[in-house]
Amino acid sequence: MSSLNRYYETLVMMKSATTEAQVEELEKAFTKVVDGLKGSISKVDKWGKLKLAFPIEHKDYAYFVLIRYTLPGDALSEAPKQINHLLQIKLNNTVIRFANVSLTKEAFESPYKKPEPFIPSATPGHGAGRGFFNKGGASVEVPAVDEA
Hints:
It is a single chain. The protein is α+β, with helices and mostly antiparallel strands. It has two domains: 5-109, Alpha-Beta Plaits, CATH 3.30.70; 118-148, no CATH class. It is built from three helices and six strands; from the N terminus they run βαββαβαββ. It has helices at residues 20-36, 79-90, 105-109; strands at 5-15, 40-56, 59-72, 95-103, 131-135, 138-142. Strands 2-3-1-4 form a four-stranded antiparallel beta sheet. A two-stranded antiparallel sheet has the order 5-6. β5 (131-135) and β6 (138-142) form a beta hairpin. The radius of gyration is 20 Å and the shape is globular. The model is unreliable at 122-148 (pLDDT under 50).
């Protein structure tokens, strides 16, 4: 098999109530797996708590961590098994979802744009129960709720 390095990133979505100690546990465990496969971690970027596009497990928010790493080509068959085992079995108390992505060298070395946090804001001048929420650059009016 080829010993050329392969480039990857894994985006991990953790429960929104995740503590810093749990994030550190993820980072240490992931580093141990990658080191065991003779790879190296390039970057661990803790994005923090962000709003989800749709609820997962009845939750609207998750804590996001992006991990970029390289692995030798001969670790290709074992890497997915070990990473999936770590995130699905060992850390399943905190991990909601994750995605492993193979990158080109250019994509791996290029900067990426961290997502902007979604912050709902009420617009002054509207009655109670009315407001505007910024949704992808467009303002969406939320109608008042009539309480009988």
